[in-house]
Amino acid sequence: MTIRTERTDVRPDEGLDARLVVDRGTFRLDVALTAAPGEVVALLGPNGAGKTTALRALAGLTPLTGGHLRLDGTDLDRTPPETRPVGVVFQDYLLFPHLTALDNVAFGPRCHGVPKAEARTQAAEWLERMGLAGQATAKPRRLSGGQAQRVALARALATRPRLLLLDEPLAALDARTRLDVRAQLRRHLADFEAVAILVTHDPLDAMVLADRLVVIEHGRAVQDGTPADIARHPRTDYIAHLVGLNLYRGLADGHGVRLDSGPVITTTEELRGPAFVAFPPSAVTLHRDRPTGSSARNLWQCSVAGLESHGDQIRADLVGDLPLAADLTTVAAAELGLHPGAEVWATVKATQTHAYPA
After folding, report:
1. Last residue of a domain, one of 212, 241, 270
2. In CATH, what number is assigned to the domain containing residue 219?
3. Which GO terms describe its biological process (predicted)?
4. Are strands 66-71 and 16-24 parallel, antiparallel or unpaired?
5. What is the per-residue pLDDT across 49-85, written as a single tens digit (0 to 9) for each?
6. 87 burial class (0-12, 13-18, 19+ CB within 10 angstroms)?
7. Are 137 and 90 in contact (CB under 8 A)?
8. In this structure, is residue 63 part of a structural domain?
């Protein structure tokens, strides 16, 4: 399934309008992408999906084998990377180790012909904006991970790009620094007036930083929408896993969805035709014996395939009538005597499922 990712309210002379086709051996990227000025779009997907190839194609570092690339109405297909109005923040930042933070930021304007003194003045203003005025004379080895990330962002923004590309910008940070820098980055992106494209495999980064998500799998866009829409209506197993849902596809006939594998899931929504049905692992209640008198409309016999810690809970991987994940407390898991191979009954109330057209 290929989804064209576009907005109908974007004028042809504004923002990004691209179809990125890149052939690399047996892998083919074919993604159509549009974005309006001021919009932050996250390309989300598993490793090897084609996210970084898409970013490199936008930057001009990987040539297109087909499609087109227009920015603010100008064709960039054959424009050299160094002359494109594009700023890039790479995963490892690529700061020049022999230059100070100030001169790293000034490098961009200097490459665009700005005189040295003016470029350094602009760089100082950007460092001030990033809260890094006190690190202007520091070289990269003296900067923390969060500071280096902000210097790299300042260097990209100092050229006043019409397209800002961020490749896993928080991946090199530890958990605590990541939390702080994510909040700072969100503020800076909110002030950015051109198009920003963020590449990440971290759903939290995507949900917090982006206005819109484009999910790429196997070189194709499989879903796009707002973070809330993606989280509530996943359309592939990968997305469902990211947002923590059990997801199934089948044929709806009223309040039941018959899955391709056979079982029927009862829902509160009334649908006809191909449909998805989803529910969170926390909606699953486990019993060692077949429950009697339960109000749950969905009941399946399963066995425990595996157990793992999941935050402050235990996640049970179940197989049987319906493969699913169930979350329960450590105490509940102990009381049920759960272990790999244990037979259980799983129940889910219809009110805790969510069905929508496929």
Report:
1. 241
2. 3.40.50.300
3. molybdate ion transport
4. antiparallel
5. 999 999 999 999 999 999 999 999 999 988 898 889 9
6. buried
7. no
8. yes
Q: In total, how many domains does the chain have?
A: 2
CATH code of the domain in which 342 resides: 2.40.50.100
* Segment 152-170 mean pLDDT: 90
Is 180 a residue whose pLDDT tops 70? yes
Residues 106, 109, 113: CA angle, nearest 5 degrees? 130
CA angle 50, 51, 53 (to 5 degrees): 65
The boundaries of the domain holding residue 163 are: 16-241
State yes or no: pLDDT of 281 exceeds 60.
yes
Are residues 144 and 292 both part of a single domain?
no
Do 202 and 80 reside in the same domain of the chain? yes
Mean pLDDT, the chain, as a whole number? 89
Exposed / middle / buried, residue 68 (Cβ in 10 Å: 0-12, 13-18, 19+): middle
- Give pLDDT tens digits for 212-240: 999 999 999 999 999 888 988 999 999 99
Same domain, 64 and 178: yes
- Kindly state the tokens that stand for 21: 């086709």
Of 271, 277, 261, 244, the closest CA to residue 352 belongs to 277
Q: Give yes or no for residue 5 having a pLDDT over 70.
A: no
**To which residue do tokens 């809260």 refer?**
131
Radius of gyration of the chain (CA): 24
Q: 318-345, pLDDT tens digit by residue?
A: 999 899 999 999 999 999 999 999 999 9
CA–CA distance, 340 with 319 (Å, rounded to integer):
11
Closest of 133, 179, 183, 180 to residue 154, by C-alpha: 133
Residues 111 and 214 in one domain: yes
**Segments in the chain forming alpha helices (H):** 51-59, 101-111, 116-129, 145-157, 175-190, 203-209, 227-232, 237-243, 330-336
| Among 281, 270, 269, residue whose Cα is nearest residue 318 | 281
| Beta strand ranges found along 36-113 (DSSP E) | 40-44, 66-71, 74-75, 86-89
Do 316 and 275 lie in a common domain? Answer: yes
